[in-house]
Structure formats: structure tokens, C-alpha cells
Amino acid sequence: MVEATAKKPGASGSGNDGDNIISVLTAEHRVMLGLYHDIRDAVAARKYGAVPKLATQLHDRLHNHLSVEHLKLYTELRRRLENRDDEKLRMIHDLQREMYSIGRGAVDFIRQAHSVELTEASAGKFRTDLEGVGTVLVQRIRKEEEELYPLYESL
Q1: Helix or strand holding residue 25 (H, E)
Q2: With CB atoms counted within 10 Å of each terminal CB, which end of the chain scores lower, N or C?
Q3: pLDDT per residue over 25-35, tens digit each?
Q4: pLDDT in tens, 33-79
């Protein structure tokens, strides 16, 4: 299953999450995208009964991912930039706020998806909403991997 391919933050045994936080978060991106595709494929195949379990898995992964980013990554970035670069600190603050907003919308939809009872009549709207979440998820991942994580690694 897709879920088994990524380490959970702190599961490395190194005792220092800061050393591998970017690789862990990046691996989580792949797992979340895999779960998203599994949900999309289940809806396309009319296997509606599989959606709630997959949505719960995606919700839990995304919620954990956002928590690690907010509690560890952003905290460490602010610590590293404190008294050094006010412009980058403002950029980090703005990026965190933007990422939180994007993540919150995705989490809300996915939370609702784990209890939805899909039918042929409701599947079309669900599919449309799911595609919107997928677009946002990909945009967020791209922004993190192309802007946020390189900044973290450069400090």
C-alpha cells in the first residue's frame, strides 16, 4: 500500500528530526498524492465504499504533515532567521499564513469525505470538488518543495 512508503516524522531513530525533516516531509508528499490518486481512482471506478477509508488516511496524513510543518519547520526557520533577516522573516510569516489557508481548505474537504455516502447522483459533484482539492494540493506541494524547503536547507 502507498501508506507504507514514507517514514513518519521522528521515526528515523536519529533523535534529531531537524536533520531529516525535509526528506520526511517530501516523502509524506508522495504518500498524500498517492492517497489522493487512490480516492480519485476509486470514484472513477465507482468503488464508493473505498472512499471513506482512503479519505481518513489522507486526512490523517495531511493533518500530521501540517502539524510538523507548523510546529517544527516554521519554528526552526524563524529561529534561524531571528535578528538576521527581517525581510525573509516576513516572507516566512506570509508563506506560513498562505500555506495554512490552503491546507485548511483541503483538510476540511477531506474530513467531510470520510463520512460522505457517495451515489451515482452525488459522485459528479464530489469528483469536481476532489479535483479542486487535488489542484490545490499539487500547488502547495510544489511551492513547499521549490521555495520553502530550499530556503530551510540554505540556512
Answers
A1: helix 21-44
A2: N
A3: 999 999 999 99
A4: 999 999 999 999 999 999 999 999 999 999 899 889 989 999 999 89
Cell numbers for 71, please give them: 510546529
Provide the number of structural domains found in the chain: 1
Q: How far apart are CA 26 and CA 34, in angstroms?
A: 13
DSSP conformation class of 148: I
Amino acid of residue 41: D
Give me the domain span that covers residue 143: 19-154
Evaluate whether residue 131 is within a structural domain. yes
Residue 83 placed within a domain: yes
Q: Which residue intervals of 49-85 are DSSP H helices?
A: 51-68, 74-81
**C-alpha dist (Å) from residue 132 to 6, 28, 85, 93, 96:** 25, 20, 36, 25, 21
CATH number at residue 35: 1.20.120
pTM to 2 decimal places: 0.81
Residues 110 and 52: their CA atoms lie apart, in Å, by 9
Residue 3 lies in a domain: no
